[in-house]
Amino acid sequence: MAVSLRTWPKRLLAEPWLLAFVPINAATAGFGVALPLLILIPLHGTWADVALAATMFNGAVILMSFVWGHLSDRYPRRRLFLVINYAGYAGLYLLLTHVHSIPTLFAIYTVIGIMAPAGASASNLLILEKFSERDRANAYASFQEMSMLGSIAGLLVGYFWTLANDALLTLLYLLGALALASAVAIWFGIREAPRTLTTAQVAGHPESLFSRIRVVIALRIPIPFFPHRPRLGRSPLRRFRAWAREELHHELPLIIAASFLFNLAANLYNISYTPYLYAVGLTAASIFLVNLSNNFTQTLLFPFTGSLSNRIGADKLVQRATYLRAVGYLATAGFTFAVLARHAAFDANLLVYAVLGGAIAVYSTASALMLFRGLEGRDAGSILGVNSAFGGAAAVLGAALSGVLSVYGSYRLVFLVAGASLLVSLPLWTAASLAYNRRRFARPVLVVGPALSDPAPDAPRTAEPSSAAKTP
After folding, report:
1. What confidence tens digit (pLDDT) does each residue in 363-415 have?
2. What is the homologous superfamily of the domain 16-227+239-439 according to CATH?
3. How many CB atoms lie within 10 A of CB 318?
């Protein structure tokens, strides 16, 4: 199954109220770069402090995604949840301007992680409820475009602000104002939909899947969104093993495992990348510009990724994008072997991070298509819940591993491990494609001899496996 979302220049804005999501994405994109710089420059922290902050943030996000998902089903007030999320960001950003110690920053950043999932399910459900099935694909594409344009705007704000002065703390006032602008725009500019849906109903829509996997917040970490929360009762490991045995001949476990390695590598790399850029002597403005190259390339390529997947094939694109990301990680590791001048380090990282942005745009669409085609005829909500859980685990593990390597390793080792993780995931993507082809294009089975239940005993029978059938 392939889904191609119609995007600009054919149609940029599905409804004017989607503009309300531009300021909040500008705020979170700018904050994602500003936070590690705040730890490193005004607070004189270390790479280990950045990694520890990300670990605490990710842990809070994972735990609270269950809570906010349950609350969004229990109390279907989409506007309220979004306003709580965005106004909470504004208040916490302003609170950070008065922070003078790293432990206090850890506490506030953990609270930001607690707030973060509040808007993840609410925004998906709001669009599902506000748009008809015919317009939903365009609505989600527009939502993504507003997110990308907002991210570019936020990084430009950070670049020009730090270029004019070095006051990172005062930048938070502006980012807080942007977050508050989105909260006000949503409260006064959007009405609740006449019908309500539950988070489990989101799982059946590929357009929502695109939106969910591309949510990017501080430190470029995706918020896991559990459309159907995995049960956490007795013997979860035993139930997981039983589930894995049932899925042994299906491509979904392979896709989930490959995605886990990809997310692990991405978190390990991204969390360490800003401290690395600062360590090689780049200024805050230059670091914002390097991040801008990544977002700009994503925005440029994303509208074409759907048609590319249809023309080339999602399987090939996933493998090529993963390989390109691995090459980019290893190239960054290669930079550590040479003593580069500041301008040379800036140019090299600007180019590599731009290429990595294009690769993630292609990967996001193609991997989503591979995942969604495997969900046909299955309990999509439960499987997406498992996938989200593994994505969250990869985020926490990547942040923790970055912290460990910051103490006992080096930036070079981090980038080598990240690149190796992607290379290890490549055979899994290949195996997933083979499993899908075996399941989808199974050979005909000829029956030798008559069967009592057949009306025409001499006619051959062809096995038509359903989407949920197992390949022997």
Report:
1. 988 888 888 888 777 766 777 777 888 888 888 899 899 988 888 888 999 99
2. MFS general substrate transporter like domains (1.20.1250.20)
3. 30
